[in-house]
Specification:
By secondary structure, the protein is mostly helical. The protein has a single domain (about 1-230), classed as MetI-like fold. About 80% of the residues lie in helices and about 0% in strands. It has helices spanning about 1-15, 20-50, 55-70, 70-80, 85-90, 90-100, 100-125, 130-140, 145-160, 160-175, 185-195, 200-230. α11 packs antiparallel against α12. The longest helix is centred in the C-terminal third of the chain and has 30 residues, at about 200-230. It is flat, with a radius of gyration of 21 Å. The chain starts with a helix and ends in a 9-residue tail after the last helix. Belongs to the binding-protein-dependent transport system permease family. HisMQ subfamily. It holds the Pfam family BPD_transp_1. InterPro entries: AA_ABC_Transporter_Permease, AA_ABC_transptr_permease_3TM, MetI-like, MetI-like_sf.
Length: about 240
């Protein structure tokens, strides 16, 4: 394993010009999909808990579809299905976007994680004690200020342990990016395996790299939980 790692370490860890390394590409896929998914999930979670059916209904349908179908199928639809449509190929912007595998991959990942994150945040909103909301209304806060200063910040904090699991699962899900010819860690490992036939070494290195990233994410989220969820700890006597 050591010999193969020394020979192919640059493909796993080192970028070559404009070509990102396997680790850098995996981190970019994770960061981009999580960022887009998070930004979409915050307003959608508010809509998900709305009392009005015509507001929460479409969000429920979206989360139901994307949580009920495999991410691999969603990636194939974005990568090959949408581009097969004539209306997409005839549009210059859409053609340029869906021609690139990385764009399709980030789109599929972002829509998928957004669906799960929306339900996580919506559940956190529902778990906020009603007394906090009543206290804010007693101060004369409008609905906009109530959500901006009380509900959303409190919900994001309470959702942190569950959201950390979604981020780790999203990291594991990036392993299917090779389907769209994206050179992530697993794609590099497959190339190394094809060149050397050392399957245990090639995929063992990939497993170690994924584990290191996952442990770093877990450590970071635990630090955030200690800081931002301290108010939920029982008071000492």
């Amino acid at each position: 394993m050591i010999g193969i790692f020394q020979e192919y370490w640059h493909a796993f860890l080192w970028s070559d010009g404009y070509r990102l390394s396997g680790v850098a590409m995996t981190l970019w896929l994770l960061a981009a999909s999580i960022a887009f998914g998070f930004c979409l999930a915050v307003p959608m979670s508010v809509a998900r808990v709305s009392e009005k059916l015509y507001i929460r209904g479409p969000v429920w349908f979206y989360t139901y579809v994307f949580r009920g179908t495999p991410l691999y199928i969603q990636l194939l639809i974005c990568y090959t299905g949408i581009y097969s449509l004539q209306v997409v190929r005839d549009n210059v912007l859409l053609d340029a976007f869906f021609r690139e595998g990385i764009n399709c991959t980030i789109l599929a990942f972002a829509l998928n994680t957004c669906a799960y994150t929306t339900e996580i945040f919506a559940g956190a909103i529902r778990s906020i004690p009603y007394g906090e909301i009543e206290a804010a209304r007693a101060y004369g806060m409008s609905e906009w200020r109530l959500y901006r200063h009380i509900i959303i910040p409190s919900a994001l904090r309470r959702a942190l342990p569950y959201y950390s699991n979604e981020v780790i699962l999203m990291l594991h899900s990036t392993t299917i990016a090779f389907t769209a010819t994206v050179p992530d860690i697993l794609k590099v490992a497959r190339d190394v395996n094809s060149a050397t036939y050392a399957s245990f070494s090639a995929f063992g290195i990939a497993a170690i790299l994924y584990a290191c990233i996952a442990f770093a994410l877990v450590w970071g989220f635990r630090r955030c939980e200690l800081r931002w969820l301290a108010f939920l700890k029982p008071m000492g006597h």
